[in-house]
Amino acid sequence: MRNDTVRAAAIQIAPDLSGRAGTVERVLNAIAEAADKGADLAVFPETFVPYYPYFSFVLPPVQQGPEHLRLYEEAVTVPSGETRAVAEAAKRRNMVVVLGVNERDHGSLYNTQLIFDADGTLKLKRRKITPTFHERMIWGQGDGAGLKVVDTAIGRVGALACWEHYNPLARYALMTQSEEIHASHFPGSLVGPIFGEQIEVTMRHHALESGCFVVNATGWLTEDQIAAIHPDPKLQKGLRDGCMTCIISPEGRHLADPVTEGEGMVIADLDMRLIAKRKRMMDSVGHYSRPELLHLVHDMREARPVRQVHDVDGEEDDQDAPLGARRLEEPSNA
C-alpha cells in the first residue's frame, strides 16, 4: 500500500559540459544526497545528460556543426551503461528517478525523459513531442505513445518537458490518466529572468488544473561554463537566470522555497490526500468536464518509419500502420 506522504526532491544542478561521464557521476551523487535526506523521488533538469544544447541558442546554424556532432558523441542510448547505472542507484536507494537525457537513436537525437521506478525498472521512455525554436535544429519529434502516466512505488507519475506545458492537449492527455505527481523540467540558465517567472506561472497552473503535485527541476550554468559556450558578453546574457526549481501542491502553492540561483535541492513532503481535497472542488476530467461538448482524441500508437503488412487468413493485417494510415475508431468506453 502506498504511503500518504511522499518526500520529493527537485534538483537544480550544473552539468559537466565535457561529456556524459562527468554528468552521470553528478546524477549519481545527487541521488545519494537526496536519499540521505529521505527523498522518495528525485527529478533532474531537461536533457541533463550529457547537457542541454545551450550552444544552439547562441550560435547561428552554420556554426553549430562541431558542437552538434560532439553532442551526438556524448548522447546516451537507451538502454546503455549510463541508464543502467541510474537504474541501479534508484534501486539501491529505493527511489523513483526522473531524468532528462539527449537520446541517440541511430542518426537522430531526441529530448527524452526517463522514469525509473524504485526497483530500478525503466517505467517510461518518452520523447518531447515538439522541440522549441532553436531546438528543432537539434532534436527529432516524439509521438503520442509517450504521453503516458505510469504506476510507480510513489503513485501515478507523468512527465512533460519545458514548453510542452504550453500544449494544453498534451497536459490534458496526462490528466485523463489520473496523474498524481507531475515531473517536469526546463533547461534553466536561459533567456533571462522572465523565463523563470513564466515557469512558475505554468507549474502552478498545471498543479491547479490537474489537481496533482508538480515537481519541477531546472538546470544551472556557472560563469565559467557560460564563457566556454560563447565569449560574447552580449550573447552570454541569454545564458543566465531563467531558473525555477520548485515543488507545487494541487492547490497551487509552493511547498518549499524555490531555488532560482546556483545549485541546490528543493525538498518537500507531498500529502497525497490533498489530491482528493482539490478534485472534490474541481476535477478537469471528471465532474468539471463536458465530454459531450469537448473531448480529446489521443493517438497512442508509436510513430514508425516503416509499415509491415502481413496476410493473415486471406485478410490484410494492418496493425502496424503508421499514423494516419488506419481509420480512427471511437473507443468502446467513450
Overall radius of gyration: 20 Å
Briefly note the structural class of the backbone: alpha/beta
What separation lies between the terminal Cα atoms? 30 Å
CATH superfamily: Carbon-nitrogen hydrolase
Sequence stretches where pLDDT stays below 50 over 5 or more residues: 325-334
Overall outline:
globular
Relative strand content: 15-25%
What count of structural domains?
1
Second CATH tier, the architecture: 4-Layer Sandwich
CATH class: Alpha Beta
Mean pLDDT: 93
Adjacency order of strands in the biggest sheet: 5-4-3-2-1-11
Helix content: 25-40%
Q: Could you please say which CATH topology applies here?
A: Nitrilase/N-carbamoyl-D-aminoacid amidohydrolase
Q: What's the total helix number?
A: 9
Order of helices and strands: EHEHHHEEEEEHEHEHHEEHEE
The description of the largest β-sheet is: 6 strands, mixed
Instruction: Please provide the count of β strands.
Output: 13
Family: Belongs to the carbon-nitrogen hydrolase superfamily. Nitrilase family.
Domain CN hydrolase: 6-272
Region (Disordered): 309-334
GO molecular function, one term: nitrilase activity
Keywords summarizing the entry:
single chain; 334 residues; alpha/beta; Nitrilase/N-carbamoyl-D-aminoacid amidohydrolase; six-stranded mixed beta sheet; five-stranded mixed beta sheet; 13 strands; globular; C-N_Hydrolase; nitrilase activity; Nitrilases_CHs
